[in-house]
Specification:
Elements: E1 6-10, H1 14-26, E2 30-34, H2 37-46, E3 51-55, E4 57-58, E5 61-62, H3 63-73, E6 79-83, H4 88-97, E7 101-104, H5 109-120, H6 141-153, E8 160-163, H7 170-179, E9 188-192, H8 201-206, H9 223-226, E10 231-235, H10 242-254, E11 256-257, E12 266-267, E13 271-276, H11 280-285, H12 291-297, E14 300-303, H13 314-328, E15 337-338, H14 340-348, H15 354-368, E16 373-374, H16 376-379, H17 405-423, H18 428-435, H19 439-448
Parallel strand pairs: 1-2, 1-3, 3-6, 6-7, 8-13, 8-14, 9-10, 10-13, 15-16
Antiparallel strand pairs: 4-5, 11-12
Helix pairs in contact: 2-3, 13-15, 17-18, 18-19
């Protein structure tokens, strides 16, 4: 007979222990109960558990103390804490300490069952399977640290905030976290917050009922419902207007959403990962981003390194990107060699657009190269950006031709936008991503430069 999976329940209230014991027993799980931290530590020494559910406040200690103890002595055991209703600060503190997830009192049995299933779906071995982290290529210290961080946070349900420059791989990191988590079988829904018109945000995020507004001819799910059981990735979250930030905060805290036109809320089981290239702390200080939402989404922060901080990884990245480009080409492309001079030039380049810019440079070089090799001229690197802290020689950037500085800069900006639009067949969302700006910022720039009438 197969031995039942064991769960440890720690709570000083006997009725809560009894409720959790009965619920877990109906799920086919064996439950051991402890009334305080001392009893819990004694049981942890005697048995192997797959999950621990603990109250936050008890007579001889608190749940965070137990979270830290289990993290140090039984790191593969996920711990979920039970907090008083509305005690957001305690929940966030527990998640920062390493808790897998939290439940609010009064405990919802439906949420409890969902949490238990997610926790038991986690692999017992913390190590990532071989080959599962290859997309984050490189062995520089910053990249090794990022991969280790991803492997650790993937086991948690805590909200994650990924910061870093445009093109540094924030969405890739989010996808890897999802893939290594207990939610890997669920959907990964990526949303560019800057690409959604403000008047459509609520219906896009939360869905709507039939007849909720003119044109709502059928009921529709929003991003939260689409990601139910999986991960919702909010890219460029700094572009959310303040009114939407309030609604997002409630959805994250309550784990419930209300469709536009509905009278009741629906539970959703979604893990939130947010990202932006902007400085959220500065936006909070400026009053452009809510402080309470910032603290709620910034439980765990991952800072993606810029490519210029990982210069030793560039040769490996070049090989990886070229192979991918050649493989994905509609017609077979012989893989060219990259000359040592070209590699030196790439390693000296600052890459303001990071890995995304490297991919664009190599795609262009693959089209322009000759004699079966890629050399420095094929890269077409901008001399002004080569070498950290170096400056271009006078005249390298060209003359203004009698223009004012602003007119010259506007002309350069217009040329860059038109180039991006042409490359993306005038898909403005894709062009904004290529330029490393938000959709809203691109729309403003096009309006200022008189480009709104441009068509393919």
């Amino acid at each position: 007979m197969t031995e039942k999976i064991r769960v440890l329940v720690v709570d000083d209230e006997s009725d809560i222990r009894e409720l959790l014991d009965m619920t877990l027993a109906r799920m086919g799980l064996a439950c051991d109960c402890a009334a305080n931290i001392t009893e819990a530590r004694h049981l942890l020494e005697q048995h192997a558990y797959r999950l621990c559910l603990t109250d936050m406040r008890m007579p001889n200690g608190d749940g965070i103390e137990l979270v830290r103890h289990i993290e140090a002595t039984c790191p593969t055991v996920p711990v979920a804490v039970i907090t008083a209703h509305g005690s957001t600060e305690n929940a966030v503190a527990a998640l920062k300490a390493g808790a897998f997830d939290y439940l609010s009192k009064p405990v919802s049995l439906a949420q409890l069952r969902t949490l238990v299933k997610s926790a038991l779906a986690l692999p017992e071995n913390r190590e990532s399977p071989p080959g599962r982290e290859c997309e984050l290529t490189g062995n520089s210290p910053p990249m090794v640290q990022i991969r280790g961080m991803i492997a650790k946070v993937a086991r948690s349900e805590a909200p994650i905030y990924i910061s870093g420059e445009s093109g540094s791989g924030k969405e890739l990191a989010a996808r890897l976290i999802h893939r290594e988590s207990a939610r890997s079988q669920g959907a990964f829904v990526a949303v560019n917050c800057g690409a959604i018109p403000e008047n459509l945000m609520e219906s896009e995020f939360f869905g709507y009922r039939k007849g909720a507004f003119t044109g709502a001819e059928a009921e529709r799910e929003g991003f939260f419902q689409a990601a139910d059981g999986g991960t919702l990735f909010l890219d460029e979250v700094a572009d959310l207007p303040l009114a939407m930030q309030v609604k997002l905060l409630r959805a994250i805290q309550e784990k419930r959403v209300r469709r536009v036109g509905a009278t009741s809320e629906d539970p959703v089981n979604v893990r939130i990962i947010c990202a932006t290239h902007q400085n959220l702390r500065r936006l909070v200080d400026e009053g452009r981003f809510r402080q309470d939402l910032f603290f709620r989404i910034n439980v765990i922060e991952i800072q993606m390194p810029a490519l210029r901080e990982c210069r030793e990884d560039i040769p490996v990245l070049v090989s990886h990107v070229l192979k991918k480009l050649a493989t994905n080409s509609p017609s077979p492309i012989p893989l060219p060699a990259v000359t040592p001079r070209a590699l030196d030039a790439l390693q000296a380049y600052d890459f303001p657009g990071n890995v995304r810019e490297l991919e664009n440079i190599l795609e262009r070089a693959l089209a322009l190269h000759g004699e079966g090799r890629i050399d420095v001229p094929d890269l077409q690197l901008q001399a002004a950006k080569v070498g950290a802290g170096e400056t271009a020689e006078p005249g390298e950037l060209g003359e203004f031709g009698g223009q004012s500085l602003q007119d010259f800069l506007d002309a350069q900006e217009k040329q860059a936008i038109l180039s991006a639009l042409n490359k993306t067949r005038f898909n403005r969302t894709a062009a904004a991503r290529l330029l490393g700006v938000s959709f809203r910022s691109l729309r403003y720039r096009m309006e200022r430069l008189g480009l709104n009438d441009q068509t393919p």
